[in-house]
Amino acid sequence: MNTTTDSAPETLRARMVDTILAAGHAQTPAVEAVLRAVPRHRFVPEASLEDAYADIAVITKRADDGAALSCASVPTVVAMMLDQLDVHPGQRVLEIGAGTGYNAALLAELVGPDGAVTTIDIDDEVTAGARRGLDATGHEHVRVITRDGALGAPEHGPYDRIIITVGAWDLPPTWHDQLLPGGRLVVPLRWRGQTQAVAFIREQDRLRSDRMDLCGFVPMIGQDGEKNGTITTDGTVTLYYDIDQPIDTAALTGVLDQPRTSAWSGITIGTSEPFDGVWLTLTATDPATCRIAATQTAIDSGLCTPAISSRSPALA
C-alpha cells in the first residue's frame, strides 16, 4: 500500500471534508468535526483508501444481477442528511439501514456519551459488517439490530431523531409513533422516479416537512411501490414508475423508433444548474411523471438522449 503523506488516511479524509464544505454541506461545526474524526476507511476495508475518501458510494454488497444491496453512501449526501437531522448531544437516534456502520458512528459522535444510537437492517450480513466496523472504531455502545426497518425499535425509543438511509416509497406508522413530538425524521422518499431526502418535524398527529434535497439511495427491501420496464427491444431504455400509475411499458416498446417532435419550454437550464425543481413540480402537477434511463448505446445512437443518462424526468 502507498503510505506517502499525500495518501495517508488523515490527508484523504481532510480532502473529503473540504469537498463536502465546498458543496455547501456540513453546515455546523459539530457535523464537520465528526466527519473529520471518524475513519471512513475502517468501515469499507475492501476499498482502496482513495475510494474510501472519494465523494462516491462504496458498494459493499450486490445482488446476483449486480444491483447494489448495501453501500457506504456518498459523503456529501451523508453530510447533507446530517445537516437535515440536526442532532444534539444527549439525544436518542434511530437509524434504519445500517449499511457499513459509518453513519451510525457519526451519529454516535454527535450524541456523545449521554446519547444513544440504534441502527437496524433486515440483512444479517449487513448488520454483522456494521458491528465489526463499529467495534473496530470504538463505537461498541451503538446498538445494531437485525430486523425489518419498517418495524423500528420501540424497545429503545421513543427517539428524538430518526434517519432512514435506504430509499423508502412510503412512511410506516411506526416511524411516526416512535418519534417524539418536536423530533425530526429524515427519509429519502422515492416517488415518480425521483428520490428526495425529506426532513420532517413531528407536530403531534402529523409530520411537517421543512427541507428537501435531491439524492439517491438503495431501495428499502419489502416496499414494492416502484416498478420498471424497458421500452426498447434490446433493453437499452427503461422507465421507472409507481404502482399507482397505469403505465404499460410493453405497449410502449418501440415508441422511440417513431418520428420525433420537439416542443421547447422557453426555459434554459445551464450545464451546472440542477433541474430537480422542474421534476418536483412535475410530480405535483402531471400524473404521467416518471423517470427514464438510457444506456450509452441508446445515447450514442441518438435513440434516447436524456439530460442525465441514469435519471431524467419523463412523461409517459
Automatic annotation (TrEMBL):
<keyword id="KW-0949">S-adenosyl-L-methionine</keyword>
<comment type="similarity">
    <text>Belongs to the methyltransferase superfamily. L-isoaspartyl/D-aspartyl protein methyltransferase family.</text>
</comment>
<dbReference type="InterPro" id="IPR029063">
    <property type="entry name" value="SAM-dependent_MTases_sf"/>
</dbReference>
<dbReference type="InterPro" id="IPR027573">
    <property type="entry name" value="Methyltran_FxLD"/>
</dbReference>
<keyword id="KW-0963">Cytoplasm</keyword>
<keyword id="KW-0489">Methyltransferase</keyword>
<dbReference type="InterPro" id="IPR000682">
    <property type="entry name" value="PCMT"/>
</dbReference>
<protein>
    <recommendedName>
        <fullName>Protein-L-isoaspartate O-methyltransferase</fullName>
        <ecNumber>2.1.1.77</ecNumber>
    </recommendedName>
</protein>
<keyword id="KW-0808">Transferase</keyword>
<dbReference type="Pfam" id="PF01135">
    <property type="entry name" value="PCMT"/>
</dbReference>
